[in-house]
Amino acid sequence: MANVTVYNMEGNEVGTMELNDAVFGVEINEHLVHLAVVRQLANNRQGTQKAKTRSEVRGGGRKPWRQKGTGHARQGSIRAPQWTGGGVVFAPVPRDYEVKMNKKERRAALKSALTSKVQDNKLVVVDSLALAEVKTKEMQKVLTNLKAEKALVITADNDQNVVLSARNIADVETATPATINTYDVMKHNTVVVTKDAVASIEEVYA
Fold this sequence. Notes:
Largest sheet: 6 strands, mixed
Number of strands: 6
Shape: elongated
Number of helices: 7
Number of domains: 2
Strand order of the largest sheet: 2-1-3-6-4-5
Mean pLDDT: 92
Low-confidence stretches: none
CATH topology of the largest domain: Ribosomal Protein L4, Chain: A
Structural class: alpha/beta
């Protein structure tokens, strides 16, 4: 099992902790990580874009002029694509961008992402993370003490003081063991996780 240093909120070492290799020490599968990231980005797309084709634009039912003898090119409708106000060629329509992935593959991808952070020394474990009040300055101070930039902060429960304090810091997001995903783990440079959250993650994914 991998041993990691445990820090307090001041950034001082207060001990060590063993991580479960079933979660934080697996063989990294880059292909599954890629699939998981593509899946989340695709599933986040709304797919609600819409434009009208020549059959949907209002008007244009009458032939604008006779076929021959005018000197103009022949036209069948003033709503053809080449006309101002005409329909769009191959117009986009609402669609579903959903990409499916098996549950076992999603879990394996998340484990690979967490393992990569451990191997790169980008997983910072803190003994606890508790703020007396909602204060962005205090949260930024904690992250500075931990030397965590562009961080994903994982707490065991949805502590509103932590969530609201981190909300206004650029490139910092919060999550719980139930809401973490491969994309968020890979997107952030550092993963800051409490000891209780580590135990919860190991309980769920081991």
